[in-house]
Amino acid sequence: MTRRCEITRKTAETDILLRLTLEGAGRTNISTGVGFFDHMLTAFGRHGMFDLDVTARGDLHIDSHHTVEDVGIVLGQAFGITLGEKRGITRFGQASIPMDEALVEAAVDLSGRAYLGWKVDFQRPMLGNMDTQLVEEFFRALTGNGLFALHLRQAAGENAHHVAEACFKAAARALRMAVAIDPAQAGAIPSTKGVI
Which of 60, 64, 81, 186 is exposed most, by the fewest CB atoms within 10 A? Predict the structure, then answer.
């Protein structure tokens, strides 16, 4: 079974085409017009072992907020579609990722309930043409539309690039663990409620 989907989303602010394959090889093709964000999504796909194609055109003459947030919306929707009823998944995942002096911990529960726990601090306002505040906005949009809980906690780090990259890699590794099929589940929904 290969879980994959393709989504398009067009608004007055952005035009996005996204393809996601959960059983991938970490192949990515990313073009959002926001260079640092492209770098982060490439790392996300590679370390989650997701095949991820994203083409986004947004109102970058204003700033990169709408583009980054809307890609988070669409990627969250893609996770929801590919997971379906969530039969047989591991459900929980966690990862601690060091990037030189930075250390970020991620924990995820594919619970059907949206929540972002955010304990990350950036010591500079911009990374290339991307506002560092948009890292949180991306993950808030991702969890809000994917309907899962994600906690990201910075344990160490001063370099904003390292901290941001550790966030994306940690989230990807935790999601990789959570979406994996657990043979012990034998296709059951991993919840005492029988539904997620």
Answer: 186
CATH (residue range 4-185): 3.30.230.40
Give the position of tokens 């996601």. 20
Q: How far is CA 52 from CA 22, 23, 44, 158, 183, in A?
A: 9, 11, 9, 29, 25
pTM: 0.98
Residue among 167, 162, 153 at smallest CA distance from 102: 162
Per residue in 159-190, pLDDT (tens digit) is 999 999 999 999 999 999 999 999 999 999 99
Is 138:75 a contact under the CB 8 Å cutoff? no
Write the single-letter amino acid at 65: H
Spell out the SS3 assignment of 98-132.
EECCEEEEEEEECCCCCEEEEECCCCCCEECCEEC
Q: pLDDT per residue over 47-106, tens digit each?
A: 999 999 999 999 999 999 999 999 999 999 999 999 999 999 999 999 999 999 999 999
The length of the chain, given as a count of residues:
196
